[in-house]
Amino acid sequence: MFCKYTGFSEISTPFFVSKSIYTHFFCTFVPSKQEIMANTITKRSENYSEWYNDIVAKAELAENSDVRGCMVIRPYGYSIWERMQRILDDKFKETGHVNAYFPLFIPKSFLSKEAEHVEGFAKECAVVTHYRLKANPEGKGLIVDPDAKLEEELVIRPTSETIIWNTYRNWIQSYRDLPLLINQWANVVRWELRTRMFLRTAEFLWQEGHTAHSSAEEAVAETKQMLDVYTEFAEKTLAIPVIKGVKTPNERFAGALDTYCIEAMMQDGKALQAGTSHFLGQNFAKAFDVKFANKENQMEYVWATSWGVSTRLIGALIMAHSDDDGLRLPPVLAPVQVVFVPIYKTEEEKKAVLDKCYELADQLKKAGIRIKVDADETKRSGWKFAEWEMKGVPVRLAMGPRDLANQQIESARRDTKEKSSVSTGEGFVENISQLLSDIQQNLFNQAKALRESRTYKADTMEEFKQILEGENPGFIYAHWDGTTETELKIKEETAATIRCIPIGNPLEEGVCIYSGKPSTQRVVFAKAY
């Protein structure tokens, strides 16, 4: 039977459905106006920022906290972060790293030891000055006890280089103690003035790797290795294509000699830095006097790296893949890969359909597929369809009595909205597994096609500005004279920044689009989050 699914999506999409599903959905569970409105989000084309905020809220990923600039990550949003943690943690351990934990509070004097580092973070630091409250002698409530002032203020961790390198001084004495490969899963605080959930908040979650090495070559190799780990994670797990590159001196991490990065394009053409890996040289080792006795028993300063990704990757997922109906999650990352929606009218139908759904769910579960059977009787089936669509579950399987009799189940892909009948007999698990694999690859292909369609070359400032101000801005490869002065002037005039100098960038003689001075290669410019 040919019909239209008009329940929740603003765009009606034709498809084939079984008679049992048609009868159940259209004749029994027509959604109310309130149900439809509850699942409506702002269109990307109308207001990209509101579209993003709507998805965060209605997919139940996070919500604003009463604490300024902070968010509450809701269970569904946190389950996505947990998946990221598990996958990344395995990758870190495969490369020889181990986890540890260091204090949240950092003595202010520690930050002062590395001048460039403290300058980079000073304006973002939250500072603890007292250690006690007391009852207000003039009325109700509490006040800070003026007699409980700390001898030295404590900074709430904006990043952990200083506290960690102060600790490493006690752990490293000899070349036998190296390399030291440590990762930490933690929260950090950076006092942001303008916040947006997941992308930029005063407090966020991340991992930060901090390693010590006996040579510069080994430390650089570590830095590049971790960039490759992040690249593989972004492309194979998040299904987001990225450009690997090196930051300009102006964009480097404070205290680093080199910062390597991966840059992703969002659907509005803006860039998002999806991960960084820093070669710190000996700066922190010298600041905290971390030395080791080499094989000739001579004392040397160790060489350092740090690297990290954060919960902003959830923001990247939203903006790289989602559509006007909500999230679209890559199957490798999705907390729920397949959701079953049983459809029935009578108690007899209920038992038969549910039993079959649970039987099929068990088969998928044994194959390592993350499943959910939505047997909630307080919600209409149409509501469930829209809810799981909003949450980006890659595959939805709907079964009614007619499907049960025909030994089939209706599948709906979240990425393309395509629907088809799948046999529940032999080959069922293999078919669903292949479907998930196809969805993963398709999301990557779509994101890559978008990036390619919005990647440009510009040879003059006029061309550069036309692209940025056009309907489809994106990444711009342009010549730059290598000076911070020119970089800052371009940023001031256009709000575009140099995202990276791509690794493996071919040499190409040209002239800087701003100064007209000689240039040997193009760099990637874009507006960014």
What does this structure look like?
With 529 residues, the chain is an alpha+beta fold. The chain contains 16 helices and 29 strands. It folds into three domains: 2-41 and 328-439, Anticodon-binding domain (Rossmann fold); 71-105 and 171-321, 2-Layer Sandwich (BirA Bifunctional Protein, domain 2); 454-526, Translation Initiation Factor IF3. Helices cover 35% and strands 27% of the residues. Strands 5-11-12-18-15-14-13-26-29-25-24 form an eleven-stranded mixed beta sheet, with helices on both faces. Strands 20-19-21-22-23 form a five-stranded mixed beta sheet, with helices on both faces. It has a three-stranded antiparallel beta sheet with strand order 6-10-7. A hairpin with a 5-residue loop joins strand 14 (258-265) and strand 15. Mean pLDDT is 93; it is low at 1-29.
Q: Could you provide a short overview of the structure?
A:
35% of the residues lie in helices and 27% in strands.
Task: Profile the largest sheet.
Answer: 11 strands, mixed
- Tell me roughly what share of residues is in helical segments: 25-40%
Number of DSSP E strands: 29
Average per-residue pLDDT, rounded, comes to 93
Query: Uncertain regions: pLDDT < 50 for 5+ in a row?
Result: 1-29
The number of distinct helices, counting runs of at least 4 residues, comes to 16
CATH topology of the largest domain: BirA Bifunctional Protein, domain 2
Total count of domains: 3
CATH top level class name of the largest domain: Alpha Beta
Strand fraction equals 25-35%
Task: Briefly note the structural class of the backbone.
Answer: alpha+beta
Distance between the termini: 46 Å
- Major beta sheet, strand line-up: 5-11-12-18-15-14-13-26-29-25-24
Shape: globular
Give Rg in angstroms: 27 Å
